[in-house]
Amino acid sequence: MHIAIASGKGGTGKTTLSVNLAAHLSRSGFPVTLVDCDVEEPNAHLFFQPQWAWTRTAHAPVPAVDSSRCIGETCRICVTECRFKALIWMGEIMEFPELCHGCGLCMEACPAGAITESTRVIGTVQMGTVQMDAVRAESISPQNSHTADTPALRLLTGSLRVGEAMSPPLIRELFGQLEQLDQLDMGVHAGQAERIRVSVPRRNEEIVLRDCPPGTSCPVITSMDGADYTILVTEPTPFGLHDLQLAVETLRTLKQPFGVVINRSGMGDNRVDEWLAAQAIPVLARIPHSQQAATVCAEGQLLINALPQMRDAYAALWERLHQIVTQGRNTTEAETTGEAASAKASALSTTIHGVKTNARPDTETDTKAARHAAALQSASEAHHA
Ligand code: SF4
Ligand code: SF4
Fold this sequence. Notes:
11 strands; Alpha-Beta Plaits; binds iron/sulfur cluster; nine-stranded mixed sheet; elongated; alpha/beta; Rossmann fold; two-stranded antiparallel ribbon
């Protein structure tokens, strides 16, 4: 199960929520992988003490033009085809790799076979494991089967090369590495040359938490895309409401289910609550505003370890979230196994606060690429409205 944690603006407590939810789930016995998709400013690892298992250089594909094979000015097909202006004609083809999205179109289109694929470094990806001690508190769930020798959770984090403009390829690389990890179910203990099996318990379904970058632009959409559910974190202020509205519009365009966590509840006003109620968007939890919580976070500690009331709040959040996602999933399975009519009617009423109703149907934007592009367009329009 993939759960994205996102927000329309920075500073709402998205990473705090991600790391505390990851720790809560891990302590409850779930195998958890936390993916820090905020590759421009990764900081989820600061809350844990991960043992870094490996660091890999991440590359993105770029075209390499062999000018000796290029037909020349009479052609210029690659220049015309590249919508990102990564290739221009200046007496010969000039390449601007920083603008290249790696779509491969120019290589396909070149009639002379003058363009081949090369790569450039865009950053690094690290995989680490967090031992039980780092997420332990006095109260450990009896279901928990982690032992002192097994990692409580895995952490995947990316770091964008300084000066690199585009983070989506690195975010995609994170997901690619995650897929490989899942296939192998392998890890490497830090400091050991040989690969050894890391026995992350699989008694329950693995939960992947994606800590997304803030905003509604391409890196956020890449990070959220395809998640089973998205938690939008906001705060009860006019700024929080404005950016929440942008994020909601983006998720509706992506047609992904979502709910909202109101962080620092108790400060500000109730406009966020009123708007959410009018939109029939579920409030998954209200995390109370407290000076104590701010101090704990500033010290790099987990809230659920330091404050009992936060432990209860995160337990309640997971209970609500699990209920909504399971309900939505069961509905979808029923639809695909022929129980469509009755299940669909029931879904519309029973999941009103979750998976179905806050994703608006639109048959014109049914492909993934179209939804992605539409989400960007929608976010851009909303931003300028
Ligand atoms: S498409 Fe190929 S042949 Fe045509 S201008 Fe580009 S590199 Fe040259
Ligand atoms: S791979 Fe795509 S984005 Fe990159 S230069 Fe070629 S056409 Fe442009």
